[in-house]
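Dear colleagues,

As part of the handover before I leave the project, I'm documenting each prediction I ran so the next person doesn't have to rerun anything. This entry is a single chain, and its sequence is reproduced below.
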Amino acid sequence: MLDNFQRKINYLRVSVTDRCNFRCVYCMPPEGVKFTPHQEILSLEEISRVVDAASDIGITKVRITGGEPLVRKNILDLFRYISANPCIDDISLTTNGVLFADMAEDLKKSGLNRVNFSLDSLNPETFREVTRVGNFPDVWRGINKALELNLHPVKLNVVAVRGVNDQEFGDFARLSRELPLHIRFIELMPIGECNPWAVGNFIKAEEILQRLQEEFGPLETKIKITGSGPAQYYRLPGAKGTIGVITAMSNHFCHSCNRLRLTANGQLRPCLYGKQEFDLKTALRSGAGRQELADLIAKAIRYKPSQHHMEEGWTDRRVMSQIGG
């Protein structure tokens, strides 16, 4: 379905939980946040009904997110439900990776096509500081398992934070040379916990690329990989993987945005940074049928704004994990 700005909306990001087993410094306070009561979270069956209705108006790609999606009980059932829909041709997952290795084979059997890992440091000590509780070897085992199972492209999402991981950009780049991994440096967005200090710790994608070219020389450009989305990809000479930058702040990509976001408590957001949400949970629990749900989703698409306004600051009380990564 086309929105009012002639963008083809074919991608739905589904948050299955607001709970997370990490406490990343730019996402949550140390004590965590107050989680949504279980009865207020969409059931897996309700989520599958939303996906089916969305597929009727052109959604073909679904990404499962959180919080940390793999802490959701019976999550494999949702992958099975979605993979049974012939209109959905791509099912992906964003995870912190700590639980992934032990679930990977079952996830693939249940319909998972590819996976993104959130990984902000290759240094175990820095990794623990950023996540507050994370164990790097567990995540690294998950990444290798994804490669072993050919869940390509395997992407690593790296939020670039000055004074935290900016000395590791070259290490991540070298990793793409050695392994078929796609490293994506993401500009820090002023959302939730990171809002007060995003400006002082912000690094433009332009600076990241400049540093990499100073260290490695010219980068190969105009690279396309599956599920490229908003990232611009580059490659070191002879590398097995790629380097990407996501310029959410310095050069927004709203003109090509193709996504909607479903929060764990059943609110459909046309724009991550927008204030508008459409209440699908009430419709689901009031007996709405597939066509009625599809009409609501189509309405949300018509209200999708032309672009975000992150520069105006974050006014939502929720953190990223409560909206959906």
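The mean pLDDT is 90. The domain at 11-323 is CATH 3.20.20.70 (TIM Barrel).

All the best with the project,
I.
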